[in-house]
Specification:
The protein is α+β, with helices and mostly antiparallel strands. The protein has one domain: NADH Oxidase (3-Layer(aba) Sandwich). It contains three helices and six strands; from the N terminus they run βββαβαββα. The strands form three sheets. The protein has a two-stranded antiparallel sheet with strand order 1-5. The N and C termini lie far apart (47 Å).
Length: 98
């Protein structure tokens, strides 16, 4: 995934400040991973440092910066997936009476 850095450009090519870029990208990545898993695909996050090589390979403009890589595929037949269950509300919440 490649996203604009903090300073980007508006539709007219003027410099524009973008707020909460990393936070927004992080949330989007979480939804993306959940969607992949729901489709039966496996992935993991990879954030090599430095990532400038990716901008050169993909020939991206200088105002964009790579954020994260997702290798995606089908899990191996012998893959062991933990049996994760949703916890009951009482297991994760504390209630106070006023």
């Amino acid at each position: 995934m490649v996203f604009e850095e903090v300073w980007g450009q508006d539709g007219d090519g003027k410099r524009q400040k973008n707020y909460y870029v990393k936070e927004s990208v992080g949330i989007a990545c979480g939804f993306f991973i959940a969607a992949l898993h729901r489709m039966g695909l496996a992935t993991l996050t990879h954030t090599p440092n430095p990532m400038g090589f990716l901008s050169r390979i993909l020939q991206r403009p200088s105002n964009e910066r790579p954020y994260i890589l997702f290798p995606i595929g089908f899990p191996a037949e012998s893959c062991m997936v933990p049996d994760i269950r949703r916890k009951k509300l009482e297991e994760v919440a504390v209630f106070f009476e006023t």
